[in-house]
Design goal:
The complex is a heterotrimer of chains A (about 250), B (about 300) and C (about 375).
Chain A (H helix, E strand, L loop, with lengths): L1 E6 L2 E3 L6 E3 L2 E3 L5 E3 L1 H17 L1 E9 L4 H10 L3 E6 L7 H15 L3 E5 L10 H9 L2 E6 L1 E4 L3 E8 L2 E8 L2 E5 L11 H9 L3 E3 L8 E7 L8 E4 L4 H10 L5
Parallel strand pairs in A: 1-6, 1-8, 6-7, 7-14, 8-13, 9-13
Antiparallel strand pairs in A: 2-5, 3-4, 10-11, 11-12
Helix pairs in contact in A: 2-5, 3-4
Chain B lengths: L2 E5 L2 E2 L2 E2 L2 H10 L6 E6 L3 H9 L5 E6 L8 H11 L3 E6 L2 H13 L3 E6 L1 E3 L2 E6 L4 E7 L3 E5 L14 E6 L6 E8 L12 E5 L9 H11 L2 E4 L1 H6 L20 E5 L5 H7 L4 E6 L12 E4 L2 H16 L1
Parallel strand pairs in B: 1-4, 1-6, 4-5, 5-12, 6-11, 7-11, 14-15, 14-16, 16-17, 17-18
Antiparallel strand pairs in B: 2-3, 8-9, 9-10
Helix pairs in contact in B: 3-4, 5-8
Chain C lengths: L7 H28 L4 H10 L17 H14 L1 H20 L2 H13 L3 E4 L15 E5 L2 E12 L6 E7 L9 E7 L5 E3 L13 E12 L11 H37 L1 E2 L2 E2 L4 H29 L5 H26 L1 H4 L4 H10 L8 H16 L1
Helix pairs in contact in C: 1-3, 3-4, 3-6, 4-5, 4-6, 6-7, 6-8, 6-10, 7-8, 8-10, 8-11
Classes of the chains: A alpha/beta (about 250), B alpha/beta (about 300), C alpha+beta (about 375).
Chain lengths: ~250, ~300, ~375
């Protein structure tokens, strides 16, 4: 019986246009979704429970709007849903790591899963940071897991290829795709979610050392460039690297 | 007195060039940064680091734990030799993970993918690059520096090197290293796609696209015209209205005219490169970089250039 | 006043159905339509998610929700593909008479089976009796502990894949509509044969065909509710439930056509600017959106009213008439927005236009709805 915690984050729809208003990203009209990689983490956590037994808690940090993400997780089949209640606005990574680590500790977590990065920041800081605060091992960008009784065997990308890595619990795993498509909710799950109550967790507050000055729109892409003749291929390759930053 | 620390990007005792860019970023925060070079035998890499212009000193951090990657052990060893202050490293997946751990152990904030530093103000992209966030630092931080943004530091420095031995327990065990399989990526999964159209002449010529794709780690796609014309090109490769809708960072269209059905499937790609011999093809209106040339001329050059850059 | 704000679980249900439509229906719709292939596999996936039997009470394995929730799902299904939505809806349609008037044993047996994935079809229409239900010829004659059914049903959705049928037949022809009874007939009963699949204009995956009953013996316990001559009232009650669903079908199909038009109009350029920048096109799409919204409000009102236990006959007819005609207009306009491409099956709007037509015809034609509306108005006037 493993105590499994999944960290889930609510983020703006990844297809949404982001408008800047008065120096801040205007999120007032945004549709909120569960961060896509966290959906893989949820799937892995549920597979872990199915493999060896245990209990899965979906944990988030955010204001009340994030309850939707927890209810969605409940509809997928997690046992409990919990939220560290904070007000809307920027929260420094130090505070996020500290609060989530405290919450995991208070729940008696033995393994924590989360997505490899949240879709809004694409930072990937929370998982390893929480592991450090808990004094645990962490394995990032995992694509495949075999669940043992008190250990895991995982596949993780390495510069040389794929590393097969073993770890004893407790451990924190950040998940990439690879463990199969995340399951869908079903109508029974939705009825369960309707009746589920979000457990609000208070872990005190922490003071970080960054603050947001402003949000800006990224510089416009330069207008398209056209070249006559294949001799310009090297120039385009250079631009793809230095200007577009895509290779 | 707080220091500026650089964690060098090292794999198997080999120093990665991105470290030179991090040196430049660090110098905009303060003088004489300390470079920590981890490795099982870090001497050679430390020598290179000591040569970067502006570096104050180098710590060659020797530990057996650096033989295999283990974020907890690595972070512990690195933390043990890093004095207080800002800590910077490259924005690779390992760099980001170590940065997050080091920040947690130093009770500092971590900021990933930094693209601009101006005094105590730093910027990084958020919302998949749809906005930039400018942050004010009010204390020590850990940051990762996005590659290809800062100019690499020149050589000619001669910093002193201190050798330090350290040991920390591995928390994970490496059981096996599996080589990268040259699997065929699916277009809906890939971050880079190179697609061919009927202009490729024969289905066999798609091999030329695969050659480029293998270098880039890209998937190969096709236009509807190509899929309809040649049985060898399966529908699963088709990008467009009746095929797959894709949204990669880079889309390279070769011998594709750019019919509206094709554009419907790929126009939201972040960057589009078009190679076509017909300069009036509609695809050029949507391309960030258009090359008017036959694929026979352009593809070998593209393969060669990318090969020398990335291979 | 009706509240049109969706609850958290209604939003989740809508999301679930929309994702299902996006992932399972849209990628296959062209193929199903071209081959006239019944979407059995996708329907079974929807059964597993609980989407097909949303309205069957929880004690029989269903979702236990109302007509309103069912209409939310149907809109998303039809947004995926109108043919799929019709094919997927036939089981619940055939279950309505059991839900509203069946015996406990009938509910336990047939509703539970439906929840587990058995499919069913609703057999009322006949070659000479469509909207004029009283014109049916099928008879059921008591013979010991069985009824013997004879007759031919036509345009039966999903007939070739059904495990059981709801069949409306005369038990006392001389009593007119007061002599009709409803039966549950197992599809494997001896004496049942099927006609060939109809070569329909649209919704070609819904497997409509005729079902011929030749001395088919049905046990008396399969008489709906165990009461003879109650069939008409049961069938009419079923219409009060089904018309809001058909209306949401029209809303979903039209919404799909509108969204596809909007996307195409912003991608395609003519005379040096995107289509959408031409007022002739942008106004067309604006009008589509208003009509869809109006139809949805009528639909939701009809659904919420019947869920609250009130008679909704007038509201359901308003919704059905307006929504069905609206979808025909909107999908036709969508083909116009697409121009030559719209006339080709390469884009989905042609399929939507063909699929919209029958919605003005089945479950009571638009003219029948106007008859009902005018009759209801006259009744309230006097």
């Amino acid at each position: 019986m493993v105590e499994i915690v999944v960290l889930v984050k609510q983020v703006p729809d990844t297809n949404a246009k982001i408008e800047i208003k008065d120096g801040r990203a205007d999120l007032s009209m945004i549709k909120w979704i569960t961060s896509p990689y966290d959906e893989y983490a949820l799937e892995v956590a549920l597979q872990h429970k199915e493999a060896v037994g245990g209990s899965v808690t979906a944990l988030t940090l955010g204001p009340a709007r994030c309850d939707k993400t927890l209810k969605d997780a409940k509809a997928l089949g997690v046992d409990k849903i919990a939220r560290v209640d904070v007000s809307e606005g920027y929260i420094d990574s130090f505070s996020v790591q500290s609060m989530l680590a405290e919450a995991c500790r208070s729940m008696g977590a033995e393994v924590v899963y989360c997505g490899k990065a949240a879709a809004d920041t694409n930072a990937g800081s929370t998982g390893p940071g929480v592991a450090q605060k808990l004094g645990w091992a962490s394995i990032a960008n995992v694509t495949k897991i075999v669940f043992g009784d008190n250990s895991l065997e995982l596949m993780q990308p390495a510069p040389e290829g794929q590393a097969k890595v073993g770890v004893d619990l407790p451990a924190l795993i950040t998940c990439d795709k690879g463990m199969g498509e995340p399951r869908r909710a079903n109508v029974k799950g939705i009825m369960m979610a309707k009746r589920a109550v979000v457990d609000l967790i208070d872990v005190g507050s922490f003071e970080g050392n960054t603050s947001v000055l402003e949000h800006t729109s990224p510089p416009q892409k330069p207008p398209g460039k056209s070249y006559e003749g294949s001799e310009h291929v090297p120039e385009v390759v250079k631009l793809l690297r230095d200007e577009a930053n895509v290779i | 007195m707080s220091e500026i620390i650089i964690l060098a990007d090292v794999n198997n005792n080999e120093l990665k060039e991105s470290t030179a860019e991090v040196v430049t970023a660090a110098l905009s925060l303060g003088n004489n940064p300390i470079v920590v070079v981890p490795g099982t035998s870090p001497e050679a890499a430390a020598n290179i680091a000591a040569n970067y212009e502006g570096v104050g000193s180098v710590i060659a951090l020797q530990s057996d734990c650096f033989a295999t990657y283990d974020s907890a052990a690595w972070a512990e060893a690195i933390a043990s030799v890093s004095p207080p202050g800002h800590l910077l490293t490259s924005s690779t997946s390992r760099g980001k993970e170590l940065a997050a751990r080091l920040a947690a152990s130093r009770s500092a904030t971590v900021v990933q993918d930094v693209i601009e530093i101006d005094g105590n103000t730093i910027s990084h992209p958020i919302y998949s690059g749809k906005a930039h966030e400018k942050l004010a630092l009010s204390g020590p931080s850990v940051m990762t520096i996005r590659s290809n943004v800062f100019k690499p530091a020149g050589s000619g420095g001669s910093a002193t090197i201190t050798n330090v031995n350290s040991s920390s327990d591995l928390r994970t065990t490496l059981k096996e290293m599996v080589a990268k399989a040259s699997e065929k990526l699916d277009v809906s999964e890939a971050d880079i796609i190179i697609s061919g159209g009927r202009g490729m002449g024969t289905p066999e010529n798609f091999e030329k696209l695969y050659n480029v794709a293998n270098i880039l780690g890209a998937a190969v796609g096709a236009s509807r015209a190509a899929v309809d014309t040649w049985e060898e090109i399966p529908h699963s490769m088709q990008v467009g209205q009746t095929g797959k809708t894709v949204n990669p960072s880079l889309y390279i269209a070769v011998g594709i005219s750019g019919a509206i059905q094709h554009l419907a499937g790929m126009r939201t790609s972040k960057y589009i490169v078009a190679i076509n011999k017909d300069g009036t093809a509609p695809i050029f209106r949507h391309a960030d970089y258009g090359i008017i040339a036959t694929w026979e001329e352009a593809l070998p050059l593209l393969e060669q250039e990318l090969g020398s850059l990335l291979g | 006043m009706v509240d049109f704000v969706l609850s958290e679980e209604q939003l989740m249900l809508q999301d679930l159905a929309r994702e299902f439509a996006q992932d399972e229906i849209k990628p296959n719709a062209e193929k199903w339509d071209a081959n006239g292939e019944f979407p059995k596999e996708a329907i079974m996936k929807a059964v597993e998610l609980g989407l097909i039997t949303i309205k069957i009470p929880e004690e029989y394995g269903g979702g236990g929700m109302g007509t309103f929730e069912e209409s939310l799902i149907c809109e998303e299904f039809a947004w995926g593909d109108p043919g799929f939505a019709t094919a997927a809806g036939s089981t619940l349609l055939a279950s309505y008479p059991i839900i509203t008037g069946g015996t406990e044993e009938q509910k336990m047996k047939y509703l539970s089976k439906a929840s587990e994935g058995q499919l069913a079809s609703y057999c009322v229409t006949e070659p000479s009796a469509g909207s004029d239900v009283q014109g049916i010829q099928t008879t059921a004659v008591l013979d010991g502990d069985h009824y013997v059914i004879n007759g031919e049903k036509m345009w039966i959705t999903g007939a070739g894949y059904a495990n059981w049928f709801f069949v409306l037949a005369y038990t006392n022809k001389s009593a007119g509509y007061k002599g009709m009874s409803g039966f549950i007939v197992d599809a494997d009963s001896p004496g049942i044969t099927f006609g060939k699949k109809e070569n329909n204009m649209g919704q070609r995956c819904s497997d409509t065909r005729s079902v011929i009953f030749n001395d088919v013996r049905v046990p008396v316990e399969n008489l709906i509710g165990g009461i003879e001559n109650n069939g008409w009232i049961n069938a009419m009650k079923a219409f009060d439930l089904s018309r809001p669903i058909i209306s949401s079908h029209a809303v979903g199909n039209a919404r799909g056509a509108m969204e596809e038009s909007l996307k195409y109009a912003s991608e395609r350029s003519t005379f040096g600017k995107p289509l959408i920048k031409h007022q002739a096109i942008s106004f067309m799409i604006a009008e589509m959106a208003t009509k869809i919204d109006a139809a949805r409000l009528l639909t939701w009102r009809a659904a919420k009213k019947v869920d609250s236990g009130e008679r909704n006959t007038l509201e359901a007819s308003h919704a059905k008439r307006f929504a069905a005609d609206m979808a025909m207009e909107v999908t036709t306009d969508a083909v116009q927005v697409f121009g030559g491409y719209g006339y080709s099956e390469e884009y989905p709007v042609a399929r939507r236009m063909r699929g919209a037509k029958v919605v003005q015809i089945f479950e009571g034609t638009s003219q029948i709805q106007n008859m009902i509306i005018s009759r209801e108005l006259l009744n309230s006037f006097k």
